[in-house]
Amino acid sequence: MNILRTPESCFSDLPDFAYTPNYIDLPDCEGLRMAWVEEGPTDGPVALLLHGEPTWGYLYRKMIPGLVARGIRVVVPDLIGFGRSDKPSRMDDYSYARHVHWLTTFLKARGLTGITLFCQDWGSLLGLRTVAENPQLFDRVMVSNGFLPTGDRGANSAFLIWQAFARFSPVFPIGRIVNSGCVQKLSDAEIAAYDAPYPDNRFKAGARMFPRLVPTSADNPASDANRKAWAFFEQSTKPFLCVFGKNDPILGRADKPMIEAFAGCKEQAHERTWGGHFIQEDRGAYLAGRLADFIRGEATMCRPDEEKRDDVVAGKVAEST
Q: How confident is the model at residue 317 (pLDDT cuts 50, 70, 90)?
């Protein structure tokens, strides 16, 4: 495995992300080093924030302050292939199973327990599998614009186009891709921050590979393990909350199957709110409030200041959405 490591100089002057990175050499993982940011009291409840494709921990800069202010210990790793973490240079170095193994190794090496998982996009594919396979580490789950596909439902045309683009396009402009998935557009400096981990195309193998790893057929190598994870959540009473950005054309309605199937979704105040696929960009402070309330077991809803565009329901998503 040829491992690339983004020079630290690439991360200078990141807007609103002056957090000190931490690094760990993952045990028994072929020398891979994983990076993470950790803020808040060491004795506070743990919130694990998992990014997806093609972002990195920078995605959570609008959520971290609100969580820390509520006394929550926030852990934000960069998945292998992203951010400040090491990046194997060949696409074949990445698999769904390897990503789950790398993430699980990180959590156990850090000794994290009592975790509240917040996940979005590929953070959900990895995070939900990890919860199902290591339930002793987790207390509850909150998902935004994510899913756990088995391949039994197939994939919509928008995703298949994205999958082909990631595989075949000669250019893969990560910052612009993230910007296209936001309702509130990013500044040039923020777009540059998403590009920062990838000084040239050699560093983008992980980002290009993620879409190909999504199970889109029933015989995908990850399908059986994901079916077992679905079966776990159908029985598990761990609290499970969905807060989705409804302006996302691909995953804006992916909450419904989980809400209907997962036992932990009962009696939760699920919500489809104004926001795009990268809802952390559009509604970061709002999500932090919802997540903090969820962790603290508070039933009150954290409402937007002046917006009236939210569809809020207790226990299920309104049919009109």
A: very low
Active site amino acids:
121, 248, 277
pLDDT for 169 equals 93
What CATH number matches the domain at 3-312, 3.40.50.1820, 3.30.230.70, 1.10.730.10, 3.40.50.10490?
A: 3.40.50.1820
- Rounded to 10 deg, the angle between the 223-235 and 122-133 helix axes is 70
Q: Cβ distance 145 to 125 under 8 Å?
A: no
CB within 8 Å of 318: residues ≥ 6 apart: 272, 311
**Helix or strand (DSSP H, E) at 289:** helix 279-296
Output the six-digit token pair for 259.
């809400």
Distance CA 202, CA 205 (A): 7
Question: Of 72, 82, 76, nearest to 36 (Cα)?
Answer: 76
The span from the first CA to the last CA of the chain, in angstroms, equals 46
- CA 316 to each of CA 158, 252, 279: distance values in angstroms, whole numbers, following the listed order: 26, 15, 20
Neighbour tally for 189: CB within 10 Å: 12
What does pTM read for this prediction? 0.93
Mean pLDDT of the region 142-154: 94
User: Pairing relation of β-strands 271-273 and 311-312?
Assistant: antiparallel
Could you say which DSSP state residue 113 is in?
-
Question: Rounded to the nearest 5 degrees, what angle is found at the Cα of 15, between the Cα atoms of 62 and 118?
Answer: 25
Would you kindly state where each structural domain of the chain is located, as residue ranges?
A: 3-312
